[in-house]
Amino acid sequence: MNGDESIAALRRGLLDRRYSAVELTERSLSRIDTANETLNCFITIDPDGALAAAAAADSRIARGEAGPLTGIPLAHKDVFCTRGIRTTCASRMLANFIAPYDATAVSRLAHAGAVCLGKTNMDEFAMGSSNETSWFGPARNPWDPGRAPGGSSGGSAAAVCAGLVPCATGTDTGGSIRQPAAFCGVTGLKPTYGRVSRYGMVAFASSLDQGGAFARDAEDVAALLQVMEGHDPLDSTSTTAEPTAFDGSGSMTIGLPGEYWDDLDADMGAVLDDATRELEAAGHTLKTVSLPHTTAAVPAYYVIASAEASANLSRYDGVRFGYRAESPDSIDDLYRRSRAEGFGAEVKRRILTGTYALSIGYYDAYYLQAQRVRRLIRQDFLDAFDDVDVIAAPVTPGVAFPLGAVTDPVAMYRQDVFTIPASLAGLPAMSLPCGLLDGLPAGLQLIGPHFEEGRVLELGAEYQRRTDWHRQRPHIIPLDTGGPGEVSNAV
Amino acid sequence: MQFESVIGLEIHVQLATASKIFSGAATAYGAAPNAQACPVDLGLPGVLPVVNREAIRMALTFGLAIDGEIAPTCRFDRKNYFYPDLPKGYQISQFEQPIVGPGTVTMDPVDGAGEPRAIGITRAHLEEDAGKSVHDAFAGRTGIDLNRAGTPLLEVVSDPDLRTPEEAAAFFREMHVLVRALRICDGNLNEGSMRCDANVSVRQVGTSELGERTEIKNLNSFRFVERALKHEIERQVDVLESGGRVERETRLYDAQRDETRPMRGKELSDDYRYFPDPDLLPVRITPDMLDEARAHLPELPSAKRARYVDELGLSQYAARALANDPDTAGYFDATVEAGADARQAANWVMDHVAATLHRHDTDIAQCPVSPARLAQLIARIEDGAISNTAAKTMFDALWEEDGDIDGIIDAKGLRQMRDSDELARIVARVIDKHPEQVRDMRAGQMKILGFLVGQVMRATRGKADPRQVNALLRDTLGVP
Amino acid sequence: MDRETLARLARLAQLELTPEEVGPALDDLNRIVALIDEMRAVDTRDAAPLAHPLDADQPLRDDIVTESVDRETYQDIAPATREGLYLVPRVVE
Number of structural domains, chain A? Predict the structure, then answer.
């Protein structure tokens, strides 16, 4: 046990009684204890709950009733409601909010035996690409704590990267799993929209939000997905499709969208060329495809996501839960000050943008037009998937940027240019580490047709059998810190 | 100047589902504050709406009843505004694609005479109800009770077809009759099960363009609709006659002061920013769903009234009294179906049955005497086995304990005497016993006949048919 | 976007902006408006609006009471309650 084992390896270790779930949890807690001050990837740590769950996992193992994730430590992005542990969404608005229910993804993972260690940092209400909008301060990138871990699920990506937990949940609305996965050099999957129930996931943009997972490699991500996915009667938009199938990747045609590659920075382009050549060497065929409406994706996304958010965030009014301003003298004063003081600047910008896009006189020009663009973007992908099995693309224009470096909100929005189109189309997309640029990880994005997560994950796993980029780890904290086990041999 | 008014109503009908439209919380009335508000109703973060099948079914039944257009899909939208009794900051409603499109409600004319009138329905859409604000419980504070939040509402919007406050009230009443007949609403006005907003404008007679309208909220009784509209029309006419302009505004009817006044706080928004609720998908109305809705469609009250008059020969009054309450109509129909004479059955249901129910403080759905029993009872009157009076005694007996009708008639000795020889003997005996009265009657004091009939009835312990006794006495005494 | 529009949006969204916040907010929002304006030129005449990425219908739940309300727990997280009611400053209708 050295902090860099796969879920399968940890499961073998647990079932062979080489270590107990309690020991595994204690080691994770100890690593979190060491690292969190620097990395700030956890907003809430729950040692008591974790140790109790680990003890329960040990008895389950002893009874021979281990589930697929029994005893595996895990962290939840703080957007997932957890009964009894606060769920803050990294907002002052919810700094003391304790949900009386578990998110469906949380209860499914718990039921499968996973041990929740705590709640990870994120951009406030998942709005951001750097973690800097968190009310609790940004999580930091373990490769360079002066840099952003990405966002919005930056805390989860950083925690997996630093070996604090072997896996973590995240959510992705326009790239919030894939971009931090790329920045931190871990594997992250955004499933097809509707694959994972949104029940208990605090909503940002309901038609785009999708829960997913981070882990060290595609196989581990697949293990998490198989537990998290499936229809949920509590979420009207959760799919009734068959569970993810793994049929073997075979020889595939991989599409390279010209629009993504043309403007790519030369260094990033070179890293990605290496990655696609590796896929070609594995016996797959590369083919250039066109996604002609790509440039309209970021503007359309910011209309749709902000419009939905403007309504989704109206419930934070200081009446039934959450932050309330001191001594309000009228109901309007209560609303206006509670919301002004409870929300950060980026959240307010999105609410105002969305309110604008939906208001009289602008609805057709912005909201409806964005929905029409959304259809064209989805159609671009459907057309491309007539010719190719998977699309390969960059995740980000560059590697992790220094905290504080991007101050213009629009420049920040454009960071998501390569992840937003698949979000608008509702497609499954994964980010895998595919190289280092100036000592920082770069990500390869694999996008599949709707409900073809299996294809994407298998291709990713094949790539990871041929490369070791996903095994690269920063040396921020030695992997053997804080517990029993062998000395690390990681790079 | 002559003015006329143009009125349209928006009627909010609380659908009688067991659970809420988007959550599994109960809809029952009268629970402790917030004891029926679950996380979805409270708008807690992360929880999601799921549509109640029965709310859709009830809306479809209504749509079929008014012969409304029903599109193959409908959609839910968000209507955005802040108000403390609206937990999410938006109401889930239907804006662009309502479940029911244009249709018609047929109502009786206001004065009860003449042809029924067809009132156009613009649309009917589903939405969630808001909670309640409690203003008088705590000084300087308003309390919020969200039990009602999420209760399914069908908002029925009429065309501006109504011309007078009386007609508006009659339409509201007809809607009340209709939704109860469809069994989609309990119709309990004092619990807020049906609420009405009225849009009203006035214009000079002879002009066709509409004047500026006001909306009056909070009309939860037939009388309030009538009174509020009367006041508002007078107010608008006064404004126009004094050279002023009617402002488009929302007004509140204050029943205690019997006046309308502008609403101050609840100018909710001038821009609701409707957009499709991304938590919900389009609702596809399948043929199966329509079949199920149709299976719940009873004979409509307007059709029932017409049938009672045209086919059963009842009066307009009786037709309304029976047809407008679904349980009464059901009881009456079943009685007629079991073979009872329609007019007899109508009289019984409106008279002795109603009085007995009233005395026992119960309603006809709980009536222990079944329609079949009542029909048997009526048949026994018809065939002369018992008198009308005895039948009432029988009804009361059956109320207490059901059983074989003829058995009880005999056990109680209520069967009318049919043996005319025996009756003739009793009549003779009565005549013998009352020579003075017989003499006076023969001298022309005919009212004494009633006394003698009574004596015969007493002697037969009520078993004789009074008509027969009457005839026999006249015959025997030789009076015309 | 001008100050008046921003004030109107802030009122609709119930967000109070301090005088110092208005200027920077307006700058940012105008940059965002310029961004979203980039899609207005796209020819979408033949594209119906897409509200959801998947073509699916709304599932319907049976009309059964499934929620037992735990008011005490729900109100533990409320800023102000009394006698089971949520409290807000007096609202005038």
Answer: 1
